[in-house]
């Protein structure tokens, strides 16, 4: 298998009773090994496969596909040399998924069930699951069946949601996995570490698992606890890397939503499920995904000591390529699903809302060449990211004002679209939402270019090659 470049992400899930507007959310930052790795975003049309066999460009994993594939939104690599890595999307049945949150299993469990080199991996998961499922639970079951037959090449966490439920699945070894239904009144922050805790094998409404996983654990004497079956304790890791790379991100997300609770950022026992101290908005999720330990001594862009600024891996990185928030609005029967997309570094890029009941997104999102071209949404936002960070102290407030204005505009526009959408149905509704996607992208692209022009103009005055003549010379 080729080197896995998509290996570091942060995920957030929010139940409908935990959110301010009754929506369900699944969200994630897709982080890469490289700072520049162009991504596309478009609508994949429904199709009939007729015996088509899928084969991965990454590791030659292969399987026959079901006959009918639903329409879905997708965010693949622009150059699929290592595989498609479609990552996230919502299909025409309003079933969404985000894949994957890379995790690591410990050496004890891998000794008895190693990863399978030509098994399913992140590059393939969305492609062979999302177009073929009618519910979140079906997503877990389909992926579980694939792993049972072909094995898994990686340890991964996968998010699913539908009109009723959110499910989170963690694949630990070549064939062993569990999944949990996220309670409606809870949220989760996951960060490259196995997080699911206790599994109740008598409750199939809220837990799913690979066949024979309890017998596997018993046979090889893998459970370190006396009176519980904790997936994190049995299959997960507890290392120095976890304490500096993974757990601090969970700590910061929970600190944001539960500010009154004092926790250790290096604790290995941060709870997987949390109830927030206030109702969670889409802006709260955006804030967490775009964060870098803001207002703490650990902020790499802050005023802490050099040691503290380098102590923990932040949520938003220079190598974040695609930050997405999938929103399912249960109080809107005509226009339920929105995918919020921030390309590049979400600290500096706005989240753009797109309706997934559409034929297309916008041509600027489907165009992502290898070299810089501001006609491409990916390159437009990567350019903005570079300019803002290059003069961070001078530009950060201007950038935050730009993001705030676009965030307000997005809320107003969604409200206006919803009012009109109530009068439409079928293909007329889909066509209308398709045109709204184009107009939304056009507005964000235009405002971003205005912002970029302003920053470059101001930046020219900040050059260190400025010289003022001393009149006394």
UniProtKB/TrEMBL annotation:
This is Dipeptidase. InterPro entries: C69_dipept_A-like, Peptidase_C69. Transmembrane segments: none annotated. The lineage of its organism: Bacteria, Bacillati, Bacillota, Bacilli, Lactobacillales. Its EC number is 3.4.-.-. GO terms for molecular function: cysteine-type exopeptidase activity; dipeptidase activity. It catalyses: an L-aminoacyl-L-amino acid + H2O = 2 an L-alpha-amino acid. GO terms for biological process: proteolysis.
């Amino acid at each position: 298998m080729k080197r896995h470049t998509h290996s570091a992400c942060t995920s957030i899930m929010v139940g409908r009773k935990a959110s301010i507007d009754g929506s369900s959310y699944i969200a994630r930052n897709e982080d890469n090994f490289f700072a520049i790795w162009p991504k596309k975003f478009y609508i994949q049309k429904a199709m009939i496969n007729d015996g088509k066999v899928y084969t991965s460009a990454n590791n030659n994993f292969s399987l026959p596909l079901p006959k009918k594939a639903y329409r879905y939104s997708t965010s693949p690599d622009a150059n699929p040399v290592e595989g498609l890595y479609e990552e996230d999307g919502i299909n025409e049945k309003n079933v969404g998924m985000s894949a994957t949150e890379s995790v690591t299993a410990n050496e004890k469990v891998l000794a008895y069930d190693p990863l399978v080199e030509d098994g399913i991996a992140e590059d393939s998961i969305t492609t062979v699951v999302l177009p073929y499922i009618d519910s979140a639970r079906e997503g877990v079951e389909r992926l579980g069946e694939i792993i049972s037959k072909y094995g898994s090449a990686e340890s991964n966490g996968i998010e699913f949601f539908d009109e009723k439920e959110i499910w989170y699945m963690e694949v630990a070894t070549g064939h062993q996995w569990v999944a949990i239904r996220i309670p409606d009144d809870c949220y989760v922050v996951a960060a490259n570490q196995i997080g699911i805790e206790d599994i109740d094998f008598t409750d199939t409404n809220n837990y799913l698992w690979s066949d024979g996983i309890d017998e596997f654990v018993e046979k090889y004497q893998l459970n370190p606890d006396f009176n519980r079956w904790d997936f994190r304790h049995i299959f997960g890791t507890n290392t120095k890397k976890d304490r500096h790379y993974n757990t601090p991100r969970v700590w910061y997300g929970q600190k944001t939503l539960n500010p009154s609770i004092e926790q250790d950022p290096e604790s290995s026992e941060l709870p997987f499920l949390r109830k927030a101290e206030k109702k969670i908005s889409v802006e709260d999720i955006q804030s967490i995904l775009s964060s870098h330990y803001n207002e703490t001594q650990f902020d790499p862009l802050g005023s802490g000591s050099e040691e503290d600024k380098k102590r923990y891996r932040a949520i938003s990185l220079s190598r974040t390529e695609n930050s997405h928030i999938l929103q399912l609005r249960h109080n809107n029967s005509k226009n339920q699903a929105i995918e919020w997309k921030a390309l590049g570094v979400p600290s500096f890029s706005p989240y753009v809302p797109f309706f997934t009941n559409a034929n297309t997104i916008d041509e600027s999102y489907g165009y992502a060449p290898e070299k810089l071209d501001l006609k491409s949404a990916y390159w437009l936002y990567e350019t903005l990211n570079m300019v803002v960070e290059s003069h961070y102290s001078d530009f950060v407030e201007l950038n935050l004002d730009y993001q705030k204005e676009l965030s307000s505009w997005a809320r107003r526009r969604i409200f206006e679209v919803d009012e009109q959408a109530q009068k439409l149905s079928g293909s007329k509704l889909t066509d209308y939402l398709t045109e709204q996607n184009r107009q939304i992208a056009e507005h964000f692209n235009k405002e971003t270019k205005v912002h970029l022009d302003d920053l470059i103009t101001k930046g020219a005055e900040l050059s260190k090659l400025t010289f003022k003549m001393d009149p006394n010379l």
